[in-house]
């Protein structure tokens, strides 16, 4: 077992962006912009040698700024195939919202955009119900247009640090 040792000197870091791979960049940028209420800040179609070696076939990347972070939405050329399912990846991304009532609003917005028929969803499962645990922490799970899972949570002050 690894013993946990306090670091000699704490280093600082904060979330900067979340990278999302998509087969349809226009669909993805449109949904992220409208669902998260964000703006498309910039688009790249030329990449460094390092980026091209890490993400073979990358052709376009758009940054959408929303929900207190940046989403780097990118797509690859048609001949690129998705990674094998046994490649380790993050399972979901969780965003905190300031009140339990806002979870209902995010859920309703997802349903409204889905019902509009303007987006193509890889996985058309509806959002979950809003679940509340014993500490009064509420959570909602939903999928983006690519089938990536997002959690939205509200953690009341009395449950912080539990
Ligand atoms: Fe979670």
UniProtKB/TrEMBL annotation:
Cross-referenced SUPFAM superfamilies: Glyoxalase/Bleomycin resistance protein/Dihydroxybiphenyl dioxygenase
Domain annotation VOC: ranges: 14-155
Matches recorded under InterPro entries: Glyas_Bleomycin-R_OHBP_Dase (IPR029068), Glyas_Fos-R_dOase_dom (IPR004360), VOC_core (IPR037523)
PROSITE patterns: VOC
Coiled coil stretches, renumbered: none
Gene3D superfamilies cross-referenced by the UniProt entry: 2,3-Dihydroxybiphenyl 1,2-Dioxygenase, domain 1
Protein name (record): VOC family protein
Organism of derivation: Kitasatospora cathayae
